[in-house]
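Below is a filled-in request sheet from our internal design queue. Each sheet records the structural input a requester submitted and the sequence that came back. We keep these sheets so that new team members can see what a complete request looks like end to end.

REQUESTER: design group, bay 2
PRIORITY: normal
MODE: inverse folding
CHAIN LENGTH: 196
BACKBONE (tokenized):
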């Protein structure tokens, strides 16, 4: 009989540990704005991985949830564009990180505004909404403190048609695509046979 109660107690303790672990590492987030269209829509629900940034820092291209800047209430969702130490500039309807134009297949429309070149301070991040021209984001003069980042958008859970992992776009991927697009087309090398 004692072993039966001990097994029940162990099961309850394990269930409590698993529940606390999920609550500490995962959180749901509902989208109530259009600033991340066309990739995220009002009414969509996401599962946010809070544990991922316990072991590393946000990367360019990550979609992050963070506490609203300044006196704002609630939480925001945006895409990380530039990291501490990076330079960022917006001109000619394009975003430049460290002097290189980004290829951004995830934006609704290119930005119709400019931003003078700036360097991102330590422990801060430059974020933009995918709906560039309808987003309250870092182009308006504020940055996100590392301490205010809650986690990374990980899984879309609602509505059913959007279910799946949230894609990220690494800077390397964006830069290489952008650089390839800027190269001129070269004719194929001619092969010549020299006679002996």
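RETURNED SEQUENCE:
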């Amino acid at each position: 009989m004692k072993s039966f109660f001990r097994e029940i107690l162990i099961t309850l303790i394990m269930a409590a540990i698993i529940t606390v672990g999920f609550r500490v590492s995962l959180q749901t987030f509902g989208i109530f704005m259009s600033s991340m269209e066309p990739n995220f829509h009002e009414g969509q629900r996401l599962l946010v991985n809070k544990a991922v940034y316990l072991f590393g820092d946000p990367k360019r291209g990550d979609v992050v949830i963070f506490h609203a800047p300044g006196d704002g209430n609630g939480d925001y969702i945006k895409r990380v564009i530039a990291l501490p130490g990076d330079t960022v500039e917006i001109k000619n309807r394009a975003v430049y990180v460290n002097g290189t134009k980004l290829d951004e297949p995830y934006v609704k429309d290119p930005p119709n505004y400019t931003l003078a070149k700036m360097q991102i301070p330590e422990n801060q991040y430059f974020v933009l909404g995918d709906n560039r021209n309808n987003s309250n984001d870092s182009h308006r003069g504020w940055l996100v403190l590392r301490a205010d980042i809650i986690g990374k958008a990980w899984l879309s859970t609602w509505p059913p048609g959007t279910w799946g992992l949230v894609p990220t776009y690494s800077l390397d991927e964006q830069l290489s695509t952008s650089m390839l697009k800027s190269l001129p087309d070269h004719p194929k090398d001619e092969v010549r046979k020299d006679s002996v």
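SHEET NOTES:
- Residues 25-181 form a domain with the Umud Fragment, subunit A fold (CATH 2.10.109.10).
- The chain has one domain: 25-181.
FILED BY: M.R.
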